[in-house]
Amino acid sequence: MRRVRTPVVKASTRPILPGRVEPTWHQAQWPTEADRIRSNFPTRSLDAAVHGQIICPVCHAISDGKLWHLDEHEYQRLRLDSNVKIALCPADERIKRQMFDGEVVLRGSWLQSHREEVLNWVRNEEKRARDTNPMARLASVQEKDNSIYILTTSQALARRIGSGLKSAFKGRLTVQRLPYEAFTRVRWTRDD
To answer: What is the DSSP string of 111-131?
Structure first.
């Protein structure tokens, strides 16, 4: 037995008799454009749907609902406003979930004698990068086996640290972007 699709009556159809509505063939067979758009773009979470300002309690970043920026005076003013929403910024959310986009590994005998100088330079480079992109952050800095491992929240910051170390302190630099993934591995070595 052949199944027949029953037409769905929509509000935009024209009446044929009082109280009865006949949809067109196209309306009966296919979803409307609005239904298609709703299915392609599901509702988003708090970050995209919020209208108004959001502040991050960890790094004091401020969002207007689209872009994040840093302004300490504005943060102190908004912190006292009860209409402002408080939520983690994307960078702090990535750090909390341990989702990293870059890894920088520093090695070499020269590094052991200039460790503090290099770490201060890396922290200053992060501060300069945050001026243009507040979401570019150092997630962790660890020292293991005469090496320094740095995890970043953006690929660009990892590449920026690597190229800056090469130009400031010389040495050998290797930048490797993993295929089919949004992750960059940077290796910097200097032996003297």
So the answer is: HHHTHHHHHHHHHHHHHHHHH
Alpha-carbon gap, residue 185 to 177, rounded angstroms:
6
8 Å CB contact between 187 and 132:
no
pLDDT of the residue at 1:
59
Tell me how far apart the alpha carbons of residues 52 and 64 are, in angstroms, rounded to a whole number.
6
H helices of the chain, where? Answer: 25-29, 33-40, 46-49, 72-79, 90-97, 109-113, 115-132, 155-169
Tokens 């406003």 belong to residue: 81
Which is nearest to 108 in space by CA: 40, 165, 191, 182? 191
* pTM, two decimal places: 0.70
Q: How far apart are CA 31 and CA 151, in angstroms?
A: 47
Residue length, the chain? 192
Q: What is the overall mean pLDDT for the chain?
A: 84
Question: 3-class DSSP state for residue 34?
Answer: helix
